Every structure is written in structure tokens, then in C-alpha cells.
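Give me C-alpha cells for this 144-residue protein.
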Amino acid sequence: MIRRMQKDDISACAEILCAVYNNEMWQCRWAAETGTAYLEDYFEAKKFVGFILEVEGKIIGALFAHEKIWWNNSELYIDEMFIIPEMQGNGLGSRLIKTAEKYVKKYKLAGLTLCTNKYAPAPGFYRKNGFKDNEVISFMYKEM
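Here you go.
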């Protein structure tokens, strides 16, 4: 079952965030408290959109997004999406993407956008779900 996210879902989502990203592939070191604060920031955003994936009443995945205003039409930007590691590869992430697509269509938004690590399996997952690599926009950063 997929449903809209509630604030009391955040701690369970933070546990999943840690389980998904605290490994050699992603090389993250999330603490439960930091993960919770990180996800709460998204949840409290003015145009937050979030979905929870549950199986038998247990949260096993989530999608954190927000409507992003753009000059010609707003879009839904996916900030975070994750499924517990033992359930990945079973089409559950695709179900979350489909739910986000329904939201985009319902509110007549331009589409979905996101950033991900190009060296992890995630880009292949997103391409499989219809996302394309952008040839015009580069994600850049400056380390300090």
C-alpha cells in the first residue's frame, strides 16, 4: 500500500535511510538523529510531497519530494527515495515513482526531476522508469 506521508513516519524513514546508505557503495555515515533531522527538513518544507510504502503495516520505503516552481510550469523534484535493502529489486521503487507520476498528472506539473550518484545502481533504476540523462544541466558543487 502507498499512502501520503505523515510526520510520525519520519523516524521509521530515518531508520531505512541509514540501512540503505550506510554501506560501502554509498559511503554514508548517517546517525539516526541526523537522518531524522534531515528528513524532517524536507517534511516541513512549504511544498512538500511525500509517500510511504507499507507492506503488512510496516513502512518499507518512502519518497520525499517537493513542488519546485519553474518559469513555465512547476515540477516535482524528488529529494530522497529509498526501499529497505532486502526488498529492493522487486518493483516497489517503481510503484513509488508511478505514484509520483500520478501526482504530477493530477496537478498538471511539468514532470519529475532528481539528482543521484552516477556511480551507484540508481541511474539504471531511474532510466528503467523513463528518466533521461540531461544534456543541458550539470549538477555542480564546490567543496569547502
